[in-house]
Design goal:
The complex is a heterodimer of chains A (179) and B (316). With 179 residues, chain A is of the alpha+beta class. Chain A is elongated, with a radius of gyration of 24 Å. Chain A starts with a helix and ends in a 21-residue tail after the last strand. Chain B is mostly helical and 316 residues long. Chain B folds into two domains: 174 residues, no CATH class; 130 residues, no CATH class. Chain B has 15 helices and no strands. The longest helix of chain B is centred in the middle third of the chain and has 29 residues. Chain B is globular. The termini of chain B are far apart. Classes of the chains: A alpha+beta (179), B mainly alpha (316). At the A-B interface, α1, α2, β1, β2 and α3 of A face α5, α6, α8 and α10 of B.
Chain lengths: 179, 316
């Protein structure tokens, strides 16, 4: 037993010695953990946990037909995270102002904010072709038999009145980010 | 007068706290060249940043306090690009390294911060930017503590580049270990067990890929593997558990050249597996580990030296 404790202490000592010898390693772990998602720091939360349910969002035109998200220089994962962020901001606004908006109304407001920003990237011709811009939220669920089902609903639909057009840069190229 | 000439920090103290893998000048030169090309090639396009005049609804990082929106203007973006090109060229030479590394860090900091200020956090540019941050800080520290402070500007000192390479490896290892720790914390230690629900994520990724381009998604081998994973939860755990273990053990690459090679190959293999099974590719991370950890030129030279030694020893 005494020998085991001695060996354990020696191992701990060696571990502490390593950490002291690797200050940049320790700093990377500590600063990443404390500063979290503030560029360039990150605590890398992607795929940090898995559940039976998940979701994604996509864009549709006024007829409910899907639109390629890449047209807006975005990807579906980025769009989902932006929607979630808008939703959290709306939720915070609601709790601060004691409003009595329902969950679906909050989602609708969040989606409208997002859609209005995206709509700026559509030219007058593109706007005429799509008629309107909508956001669909899809939920995936795995049941006890490991079958996956999808349920969808249109969260918001907007027109283009009063939204200015911001032309994309000339050197637009394909996105370098992974989907 | 004598006191003013004494360096603030003893350079031996600075370099000795890091386990000594001494990199030759040609190794670090090749690493710098590869990394500079990567930095130049993967710099975010202006189109992937917020539109000029668009509201940064969720300012991230320094954008919370400093207005960086000038870089969204085509002229501002062009200036950043010119700086990037000049600094990348200087970075390869190794001269004035503190300046070139800092300018490259600044370029990536501005572009990455703006890209993450729309509400969605991408994890595409953090590793490269953190490497540059580590290299810049290490280089300035080295200059501050050097006996001859002009050396870093007039020459391309091998000792400086060897030191910043060791720091780079620590930054890489630290972030990969942190990634594993976050998984363990967020899942309360059940990450491997919960990976049985990976098919849900797979279905999400597949749908997201489709809705991004509206083109049919062919997941190839990943699709077949996912079918099996949907039927057999234990297979999910078997496929994804090694990834977590590799991330957790990334620190081993700081121990020796051999560990560096082993962990480098393991991390590249992990990224390849994630690419095949989930369609999530991080080619720049693979290249970084190929350049800094696998370090093929070193092993080729070692192999040649070993063969020459063997030939000399063998009877004629």
């Amino acid at each position: 037993m005494h020998l085991l404790v001695q060996r354990g202490a020696r191992l701990v000592n060696r571990g502490v010695g390593w950490l002291r010898a690797w200050p940049w390693f320790v700093a990377s772990v500590v600063f990443g953990f404390l500063i979290r998602e503030n560029f360039p720091f990150s605590h890398w939360p992607m795929y940090s946990n898995f559940a039976r349910e998940s979701g994604y969002v996509y864009l549709v035109n006024s007829n409910g037909e899907p639109l390629a998200i890449a047209t807006f220089f975005e990807t579906a994962p980025r769009l989902r995270r932006q929607f979630e962020r808008e939703w959290k901001a709306e939720l915070k606004r609601k709790s601060q102002s004691q409003e009595s908006r329902s969950r679906s109304e909050i989602e609708q407001d969040a989606a409208t904010h997002l859609l209005k920003r995206l709509a700026r990237r559509l030219s007058p011709e593109e706007r005429a072709a799509v008629g309107g811009l909508g956001l669909v939220s899809a939920r995936l669920k795995m049941d006890e038999n490991r079958d996956i089902t999808v349920s969808e609903r249109t969260v918001a639909m907007i027109g283009f009145e009063g939204i200015p057009f911001t032309p994309p840069p000339q050197d637009s190229a394909e996105l370098k980010e992974p989907l | 007068m004598i006191a003013s000439k004494t360096p603030l920090v003893n350079p031996r103290t600075l370099t000795d706290i890091v386990p000594r893998i001494d990199f030759a000048w040609w190794e670090t030169a090749l690493m710098r060249t590869g990394f500079a090309i990567l930095l130049f090639a993967r710099f975010p396009e202006l189109a992937s940043l917020p539109s000029p005049g668009a509201e940064l609804r969720f300012p991230n990082g320094l954008a919370k306090w400093i207005d960086m929106s000038w870089a969204l203007d085509p002229l501002g973006y062009s200036i950043i690009n010119v700086l990037l090109s000049a600094a990348a060229a200087l970075y390869i030479t190794g001269f004035a390294f503190p300046v070139s590394a800092t300018v490259l860090f600044f370029c990536y900091l501005v572009a990455g911060t703006l890209q993450n200020s729309l509400g969605s956090i991408s994890h595409y540019y953090q590793v490269m930017t953190l490497m540059l941050l580590g290299q810049s800080m290490a280089a300035w520290l080295w200059v501050a503590s050097a006996q001859n402070r002009l050396e870093a500007w007039t020459r391309s000192p091998a000792a400086l580049h060897s030191f910043t390479t060791r720091v780079t490896l620590q930054v890489l290892a630290g972030n990969y270990v942190l990634c594993a720790l976050t998984k363990l914390i967020a899942s309360k230690g059940a990450w491997i067990w919960n990976s049985q629900y990976m098919p849900v994520q797979y279905a999400k990724i597949q749908a997201q890929q489709f809705y991004t381009t509206l083109e049919p998604v062919d997941m190839g081998l990943g699709g077949a593997l996912n079918e099996l994973c949907t039927q057999y939860p234990w297979l999910c755990m078997l496929v994804y558990a090694p990834g977590l273990i590799v991330e957790l053990l990334t620190f081993l690459m700081l121990l020796s050249r051999t560990w560096l090679l082993v962990i480098g190959l393991a991390v590249i293999a992990m990224h390849m597996l994630v690419d095949i099974t989930m369609g999530l590719s991080f080619p720049q991370h693979q290249w970084i580990f190929f350049l800094y950890a696998v370090n093929l030129p070193f092993w080729i030279v070692e192999g040649i030296r070993y063969l020459q030694l063997g030939l000399r020893r063998s009877p004629a």
